[in-house]
Design brief:
Layout lengths: L4 H74 L4 H16 L3 E7 L3 E5 L2 E13 L2 H13 L8 E11 L3 E11 L2
Antiparallel strand pairs: 1-3, 2-3, 3-5, 4-5
Length: 181
Amino acid sequence: MKISRKVWLILGAVILVAALVSVYMIYFQQAGERDALNDKLLEAQTLWSALEKQKTQEGGLEDQLAQAESLLDTSRTRFPESVESIEYGEYLFEIAGDCNVGITKLTASQPTDKKLGTITYSVSSFVIGVSGSIDDILAFIHAVRTGGDLQLPWSAAEVTGVNIDVAGSATINLNIYGYKG
């Protein structure tokens, strides 16, 4: 059986069309994969940028943390670590509330030791800024000098200076002596 030329041409055309369809399908499949990979690449680049930005911010946060720790160390050196100073501060705020004055400033020095004969005292110096009426400020000064919380058997308060202005504020210098034994 001999195949005619026409059949060969049809068979060749069918094979050519089948090959073109296969190439077309492979091309579009790979084009789809390429588009998916481009999308993933774009997503990865966006994520990379976000991570770089976060890393930069974390570097800034690390700087802020270092600054905060430095500020904390500075603050620790400015404030005495004596529990008595903290307790005295609480007493002063309590007395201020009772006398209707507001404390606008409270600074305490590091307690120092003062020896009188064989007895050693701890001396804490305070500078207290208060605001209120003149009568209330005078009541506050009196309460500090005679207040039960500051005049304990093991401690005593001494007002060493007062500066009152007519605008209703005062600065009071105070030494608190504590018995160390």
